Queue: 2 jobs
Job 1
Amino acid sequence: MLVTCTLLKSIKFILEASRVHMENCKPAQHASSCRRQVIFKIEPNMNLTPTAIIAIVGISVFAAISCNNTNQNASQPTAQNSNVPADIFKTLIDSATKARNNAYAPYSKFLVGSAVLAGSGAIYTGCNVENASFGLTNCAERTAIFKAISAGEKRIKAVAVVTDVPELTAPCGACRQVIYEFGRDVDVIMANLKGKQKIEKISKLLPDAFGPGSF
């Protein structure tokens, strides 16, 4: 880190000597892009020295690589933000994605897949099942949870929800209540088919929840 900072200071000194002004850490205008960018201000009708040109190219490449790494890390929280092991984390998302293909959604056309990591370590999948009587529709999360409970599970550790929309889909209120029933520290993993991911604790998605301890 010290070497990098020293190098950047040296490059900045070279640029300033060549009348090229550099502004570091200017906020990006678009949230989807890198949050920091480097701006060069070059005075018109000036002759840049070869050293200055090389410095500009070098720092531009450095900034581009840094931005790319930042964006990748932001869109891929992985298991570092979760209590779920990295390999299981990926398996949950893959399982939910596969289960989504079985969704019965002739009315909304909104396909949802879910995968539940139970206390035993087993994974149970589910999809949304709609009904002509809309109130009887069952969400993917509850389908997966009910499958786990009917198989003898008593606790769940994580729930993955996968959809195909730009903004990640969080569980509905009813599903949040059901998730909380079987674990107050459950990791809720939200993902879409583009690879965007987010993790939240059920206790955050359902604050001041009514649960087994409320009686």
Note: Residues 2-75 form one domain.
Job 2
Amino acid sequence: MFQTLFVTLTYYFLFLFLQKIDAFTQSVPFSRRFAHTSLAMSSESEPPMKLDPKETAFIFIEYQNEFTTEGGKLYDAVKDCMAATGTLKNSKKVLESAREKGALVVHCPIMFEKGHHEIAKDAYGILDAVKGGEAFLAGTWNSEICDEMKPVDSDMVIKGKTGLCSFHSSNLEFILRQNNVKNVVMGGFLTNCCVESSMRSAYERGYKVFTLKDCCAATNIDGQNAAFEHTFGMFSVPTTSDEVISGLN
């Protein structure tokens, strides 16, 4: 009897063990690899948010006239998504709350010198479009941060952003480390481009990352929703302006 019980338990635990390693075995078909496991996605089911302003930075990405304001070269591409999410209204609300609570506010504009020589001649994708359209030209109204989000003396404005990731070519990392930041809250443009690229980098650098669903905009609403439903929960805690303001204490 004991021998039969021992054999039964042995097979049972072996079965559980094989289920666990299935997901990490290259010979297992990809569709089956995660059959017994799940990718951890952050969601609104997490405990109520609590953010210490002394350890939190609010990173506002590319709130520039080129995107945000009629007359900007990319305004028509994002205006519908901005209207649907209330991007500027919600972002301004978060900005004012962050300042009031004494959190670090960081603006991350992107800009290029005349000729866009920072971008390769044979560039492709979105950077090719930026270069060809002469977008975000330094020293012009287009590259200025919009009136709703204008920096004040207590804010920080990063220098050197000429790519998609807010960290890669700028002094953002230096600013965050010098201010002992542990949490970063992100919003801006484009949801599935510069915001996502910056979010992933912040996650890999060890920050606790929060992305503001109602403070971002993409070139279409489907792209906006897809980013938050399928990607952002892997590298951040997707949240809203009201939740962040409530949790900032």
Note: The chain has two domains: 2-33, 53-247.
